[in-house]
Amino acid sequence: MNTLKIDNVSVVYRNGYQALTALNLEIENGIFGLLGPNGAGKSSLMKTIVGLQKPSEGSIHFNGCDVVKHPLAIQKHLGFLPQYFGVYPKVSAYDLLDHLAKLKGVQHKQERHQQILGLLEKVNLLEHQKKEVHTFSGGMKQRFGVAQALLGTPKIVIVDEPTAGLDPEERNRFNTLLSDISEEIIIMLSTHLVEDVRNLCSNMAIINKGAIVSQGRPNDFIAELKGTLWQKAVKTSELPEMEAKHQVISKQLIEKVMYVTVRATEAPNGFHPVAPTLEHVYFNHLK
Ligand SMILES: Nc1ncnc2c1ncn2[C@@H]1O[C@H](COP(=O)(O)OP(=O)(O)OP(=O)(O)O)[C@@H](O)[C@H]1O
Ligand SMILES: [Mg+2]
């Protein structure tokens, strides 16, 4: 079993902005979803875990090793897909993976070859292996990024918004791939796609304004809201009154009709019950 333990981690950037405040998390094997709105601190946390930046305070341990003091203790076992990655050199996808695999310590040529072909197939880039990576489309680059993160035999894979820019078919392929490899290792993924967390993650945390708002299992979160959500179609002009009177969880346009979902112990007048989703959980915790 691998463990990642984050204790009391704060990050203050050079301009004085505090991106993370005394954050605690403990993660074990399986897929862990970090869910939060834009600017919540997801990328800041991930960059700090992988050692691209040091926390201003707090400690991070991977399998018992202090990785703030010894970043190699995690980096040796790490696959990382940053949210934004830089310019690709004019090398073919295959050659770049071969180079990166060497850096990751896959010494044996035949082993590298097998692994690279296997990964290229899994991210559906086999037929483009000879193309130079800088000519790839956005989604192809993203899939290349996934392949490089899985090179070697990582014990921890950290992917920052991995499905952003992927078409639905490739997103499904990616989710299946993650799910297949997740039993033996830690996979931490950040997203604002609630549905991906619901489908993939055994554990999750909601992060907002640099702090963990809540952590648990998606199913438990949903169970907590059971029997407390009510929905009604409204006119936009009725919204202010709704918000004054009720605890509004979400407002959603469905086929051009505005639906409000409110939380209450009993059905308010004219509302009908609605089954809670992870999206309701997310909105409920952000409020
Ligand atoms: N290098 C930096 N210097 C100063 N402030 C920064 C720096 N990097 C990030 N921030 C700020 O820290 C906050 C958190 O940013 P971060 O990129 O971690 O958010 P995020 O949750 O990944 O958002 P998104 O969903 O948009 O990717 C933001 O307010 C951002 O402006
Ligand atoms: Mg980010």
Secondary-structure topology with pairs:
Elements (H helix, E strand, L loop, with lengths): L2 E10 L5 E11 L1 E6 L6 H8 L7 E6 L2 E2 L5 H4 L2 E4 L11 H11 L5 H14 L15 H12 L6 E5 L7 H14 L4 E6 L2 H7 L2 E6 L2 E6 L1 H8 L3 E6 L4 H7 L1 E8 L2 E7 L8 E2 L4 H9 L1
Parallel strand pairs: 3-8, 3-9, 6-7, 7-8
Antiparallel strand pairs: 1-2, 1-4, 4-5, 9-10, 11-13, 11-14, 12-13
Helix pairs in contact: 3-4
Give structural notes.
The chain has 287 residues and is of the alpha/beta class. The protein has two domains: 3-217, 3-Layer(aba) Sandwich (Rossmann fold), CATH 3.40.50; 223-286. It contains ten helices and 14 strands. It has helices spanning 42-49, 72-75, 93-103, 109-122, 138-149, 168-181, 194-200, 218-225, 239-245, 278-286, and strands spanning 3-12, 18-28, 30-35, 57-62, 65-66, 78-81, 156-160, 186-191, 203-208, 211-216, 229-234, 247-254, 257-263, 272-273. The strands form three sheets. A six-stranded mixed beta sheet has the order 6-7-8-3-9-10, with helices on both faces. Strands 2-1-4-5 form a four-stranded antiparallel beta sheet, with helices on one face. Helix 3 crosses helix 4. It is globular and about 70 Å long. The protein starts with a strand and ends with a helix. The mean pLDDT is 93. Bound molecules: adenosine-5'-triphosphate and magnesium ion. Adenosine-5'-triphosphate binds at residues 13, 15, 17, 19, 36, 38-44, 83, 192.
